[in-house]
Records
---
Amino acid sequence: MKPFTYYRATTLHDAVTTLAARANARIIAGGTNLLDLMKLQIEVPQQLVDINGLGLDTIAGAENGGLRFGAMVRNTDLAAHQIVREQYGVLTRAIVAGASGQIRNRATTAGNLMQRTRCPYFYGTAMACNKREPGSGCDALNGISANLAILGTSDACIATHPSDMAVALRALDAVVHVLGTEGERSIPIADFHRLPGDTPHIETALRPGEIITAVEVPASIGGTHVYRKVRERASYAFATVAVALVARVDGASVTIERLAFGGLAAKPWRVEAAERRGSGTPEEVARDAAAIILEGARPTDRNRYKIALAQRTLHAALIDAQEQSR
Amino acid sequence: MTHDHRPLDVTRREFNKGAGLGIAASASIGWMTFVQTPASAETPSESTAKIELNVNGEARELMVDPRTSLLDALREHIGLTGTKKGCDHGQCGACTVIVDGRRMNSCLSLAVMLTGSEILTIEGLGRPEDLHPMQAAFVERDGFQCGYCTPGQILSAVATLEEIAAGIPSSVATDVTALPAASAEEIRERMSGNLCRCAAYPNIIAAILDVQEKRG
């Protein structure tokens, strides 16, 4: 690990001004991804600004019946919160589908959104990667791309975003509250993560010096909440395909209320046009919705399977919804 | 030709470091497939920080380079080598300790960030003459072979039962509003952050279930 200076912020304002003062400063929260990358010298910050002493760890009711949780709420605490379990079940389910118990105890809400891709070419410093080294190329395009993206990709990058939590937040229409030297603003989760385009190293809508202070979800929409994740082993692995679903179930018939996919793109993938397209059997609804969502997919020869897998995972998730609502 | 009979200049600890990296590198084609670990020699840091950790009930003041992980602080600075370094990237769980009542990977946290924290390591859990029930159950059930992952397994297991008792949900729940039960399925899922390359898993699960049964 390269040397850095360590600074423990005393107030939120202090954190923002310290972060803005140095180009190569980074916020550290749980550190479960950042420290890993620093050990590999993929991240080489000159200064770490620790915000663990700032609180930002409360979960409280928000305007219009929503729920607001601080940037530093640990993944375990968010998943276990009674209101989240009862009214935003897809969020609890998504969080506990990710990482391990140890990591969820440490990892934070904001850090989860800010984590970097697990593309093996991003991690392999001998490989070309436009995210790690802009302009160097992308060895993943003709490489081992089985776990990489099929939607929203570019010739510069086919990495996926690894978060499960973010997929549920996308389905729930969350808003990310941020603070910078020029003040506060709110970013809809839909706009928070960026598609790669020509600049895959710019991953979020955060401006230099801005930090996440809280995430808010609007009032619960009810329904049956499902998170179904397909991965290469039963636990503690990143998704090949994941489905965050809120559905209405009426006997044998299901309706999609909200639907977002993980494992397919550089951000949680949601196409609103595929939602509420009518009711039907899980098979019919999955077929129709998947056709809309996967239109324009640009797979490699190695990850073409994700097109069929996405439809089947949605089908299975709709059956889960039926079983859960019995 | 003369032979040099000096003992091999390799310590068990150095051997284990290499073996641990081998585990990470030989994983299936995933995110660590092409990782090349930078040389471990570190550029001297210009700054050190004074920190205070309460380890197993004992206050410890240390001067550390800010880069020092909690794991290295425990092993290299305090000399408590019961906490093991496997992958050093949060994937194997060998370094699991309990910080302020919660299990975490000590390799993925900087010691400087934890100043003022209470840390429980395997050395503080029980003594050879007075084993913690989880340690006794691992012995009884043969919950290990080489033993390298065992301190992490045991601390993770102790915390897992606490997490279940506290009602924290896991991904095996069909109803996330319900309280979890300490079933074998729950324990397997919750222990997935602790790898055992000897594959003592069935006996580890049996040991944890024994302790749970006695807890009632």
---
Amino acid sequence: MKKIILVSGVLLFLVCAFFLPGDLLLWQSRAELGEVSTVSKESYQSEAYALAREASARLSREEKLSLVRGEWESEISEAEEFEMQLQGYEAVRMAREQMQKMYEEGEFPADLSELYQNWYGWQVTPYKAVDATFHTYTAYYWEIVFERFDRKKSYTVRMLEDGTIFTY
Amino acid sequence: MKFRNKVLIMNVLLLSAGLGLVGYLMIRKNFEILQRAGLSRAVVENNLVQSSVEYDLLQVLNSTGYQEKEEQSRAWQMRRELAEIGGRVKGSMMMTDTAFYIYYKSSYEYSSDGGENRIPVRLFYNMRAGEKNYLVCEEEGRKVIYVTSCSLVGEQYLHIISRSDISENYKVLTEQIWYFRLVILVVLAAASLLMLLVSRYLTRPLELLNQASSEIARGDYSQRVNVSSQDEVGQLAGQFNRMAQAVSDHIVQLNEMVHSREQFVADFTHEIKTPMTAIIGYADTMRSMELPRQEQILALNYIFSEGKRLENLSGRLFELLYLKRTDIERQPVHISDFIAEIREITEPIMKRGKLSITTDVEDGVIWVNRELFVTVFVNVIDNARKASCPGGEIRILGRRTETEGEGAYEFSVEDDGIGMNEEEVKRMWDEFYMADKSRSRKEGGAGIGMSLVALILSRHGAEWDVESSPGHGTKIRIWIEGGE
């Protein structure tokens, strides 16, 4: 009798070791069905600016200008330097080149070239216009203030990152 | 149950439990990784759809026409636009097996596959703008994962829901479980066989020990175990062999003792019977017939001498028994005085045998029982006398020596008599043993003397040995502590 109990116990243990882990796994997988969980933000959101950058890549120049000018509902705020694709001095050089062309074509009143004695210093600030609905789509632009050395003349120029000069 | 079977069962149980646990943990972890990958893929797909829908919606929301409309009209346009956007996004999407739905203002505005009725409503509960929820459920035998985003558009929540099929993960899980079961079956079978062999090999020495113990228990004390390993079992086998040897030696000793006792009884009976026969015979003759006076005296002399022999025998036996049971008292004995006393005692019997006795002893003191040591020397010298021929010489020598680095005294009694062979030398200390029975009896001996000598010497802690060969005399040497 003792032997029968022992053998039965051993066989039962072996059967359990054979079937139990698999059955437990299947049971657990079934038990987890139907549970609503929140996706951790880390798994779908990188840094906010990276997300904005990624989504904003779809925006055309006109759409960006619409955001900046407020034609599309947007919120404008100062951007951080690291959010911008260009450095400040690069943006100034790009703007200066375009303003020079405009000056030569008679579309801008001042020669901003550095070669002349009426030398203009500059001050640059990055801005971003974020859509007010989804807070995702963003247009980045620079606001550059050129000021003559004697402070008698100054011009404010706004430029998208692709070099588009615009006015409000 | 045999020990090796217990070992086997325990190992198999532990192995199966271990395999089960490890298999469970590994498959579980693998499944979690698959599920995470599935969720990650589903979230990326939802992001893509959400991004596309919101981009198109952004243009609608900011169009002049939309902004100028009434609230009611806006809602209608929004619904129409969402349906159109959904269609456009579906057309531009590369994902063929992922369905998506647009839920706005408590109703589905777009469904890519018409399966919006299957979506559990609890998926949207308590969601806030910017969050994403997911849900894994079973639909028509397939496992799907729903991911929904939540945005706030015009004070109404907009949900972009995507649905991906992750049945493959569950298929992999099922396959892994069955593969694991196959593995556990094969591993357990192979391991059981291997462990059976190993347990047999490991418990083989124990089996041998068991068999040897059984044989010894049945009386075969010659059984030994041949185990050469140096482990605990090997050491146990070694100890067992030593124990068996000790038991065997003890049994031999016991047998010898029993034999010795039996021999003692037989010899004692014989020694009693011989004089008793003579006494009874002469007494019967004297009472049965009228003998001449001279023959009567002869018969009475026989009766007397045999009676004396019996008395002598009983006296010696008493001494033997007495010595075995009582402590002996020692006193300092000056060797030169002692030997002189011995000479004096033995002188008459030496003269009768026409033998001479010479002594050459170094003086010294030994701590012994004087009376008992006199008995030792008288017996040894008397034995030498019996073995010697008339005109022979018996020499008593003594000198100081050392045994095991300590001071000792060596006595030596030598004769040039008939000597003894090896067997006789071995048995000369046994009770009632007489190398030459007729001669000993004639001399009144009973074969007790040398047994008494051996007993006295052993009680004094002395050592002794005998050198003898037939025709070349005998030399008995005795070593005793002291002698300074």
